[in-house]
Amino acid sequence: MFLHHISKFIFLLVWVALLAACSNSTSGTHTNANDGPSSSSESAVAPNASETPTKIIETMRGKIEIPVKPERIVTDGYLPELLVLGLKPVGSTRWDLENKVIQDRIDGIASTGERSLETIVELAPDLIVTWAGDVSIIQQYEKIAPTLAIPYGSYSDIHETIRYLGGVLDKEAEAEQWLAEFDQTVEEARAELAKVIKPEDTFALMGVFVVDKGFYVYGDGGYRGGEALYRHLQLRPPAKQQEEMIGKEAYRQISYEVLDEYAGDYIFIDQGDLISDIWGDNQGLWNSLDAVKNNRVFKLDPDLFWGNDPVSLELQIQEVVKMLTGR
């Protein structure tokens, strides 16, 4: 059994070395890493050693060569985005596969655990798509296959993300179709909300974070439904949040003493049941807030509102409409 494992390990090392040599011999010339990603690619499409058509694209790490139509994608962070574009990866990380909103779409996708390089090698990908920003992680991936690195937060909203991926992966039509349907969903949701809320109503987005036992306020970034609430549904944040956070800060931790400065007419809260765990008996200010006293506090499903992938965003928008119209 020991010899079997040693042989397998040596085989994998040789495989990685061969793939790295192949990648180095066909890779494009890198440009400055600060040039930023672009959906454009060079018009010339050349066959590589295996006669698979490839193209050169711009990424945050410069120009890279990828298959025109990749068939064996492994992803670390962009599973829902690839699925809505009609691309089913052969492998994805454990936390991607645990995403509640895509459980009906992941049959046949292998788990790479927490970035298991051995498992990724065994899947023989022709492209790796990752949201990792750590150069050491990206370099490990690049030894296995061409790697499209789009660090988390590279784009301001789902329109930019989907259009970029659609452009580089030859799925422009699918990207535009999904975005058109998404925009229609948003438009209908806003119309429904206009019937039940006033233009001057304000909506705070707050949450308890169990890891550090802190209390947080969220902006319009990719945390706790902020993009859905403020960018797409265009709900009005409280004045302090609007002035200091929207478009600037995705989140900030606040103390009990300044809670009322961030409270709105309505409050959406993540893991609100844990407030007593961080404030103990000092909950008087929370209970005195108008939103709390008037039953205008909405508890968010942490599994649904954790991410801002395209599937989650669409469901978050529908859930917010359901909560507000139902109240």
Task: Label this structure with key terms.
disordered N terminus; 5-stranded parallel beta sheet; Rossmann fold; elongated; 327 residues; 5-stranded mixed beta sheet; alpha/beta; 41% helix
Structural account:
Helix content is 41%, strand content 17%. Helix 6 runs antiparallel to helix 7 and helix 7 runs parallel beside helix 15. Helix 2 links the parallel strand 4 and strand 5. With 327 residues, it is of the alpha/beta class. The chain is built from 15 helices and 13 strands. The chain has 2 domains: 175 residues, Rossmann fold (3-Layer(aba) Sandwich); 131 residues, Rossmann fold, CATH 3.40.50. It is elongated and about 70 Å long.
Layout of secondary structure:
Layout: H1 2-26, E1 46-47, E2 53-59, E3 62-67, E4 73-76, H2 79-84, E5 91-92, H3 94-97, E6 110-111, H4 117-122, E7 127-130, H5 135-142, E8 147-149, H6 158-168, H7 172-194, E9 203-209, E10 214-218, H8 226-232, H9 239-244, E11 251-254, H10 259-262, E12 266-270, H11 275-279, H12 284-288, H13 290-293, E13 297-300, H14 302-305, H15 310-326
Parallel strand pairs: 4-5, 4-7, 5-6, 7-8, 9-12, 12-13
Antiparallel strand pairs: 1-2, 2-3, 9-10, 10-11
Terminal CA distance reads: 63 Å
Q: Roughly how much helix do the residues carry, as a percent range?
A: 40-55%
If classified by CATH, what would the architecture of the largest domain be? 3-Layer(aba) Sandwich
Q: Remind me, CATH topology of the largest domain?
A: Rossmann fold
CATH superfamily (homologous) name of the largest domain: Nitrogenase molybdenum iron protein domain
Output the number of helix runs. 15
Based on Cα principal axes, name the global outline.
Answer: elongated
- Supply the CATH class of the largest domain: Alpha Beta
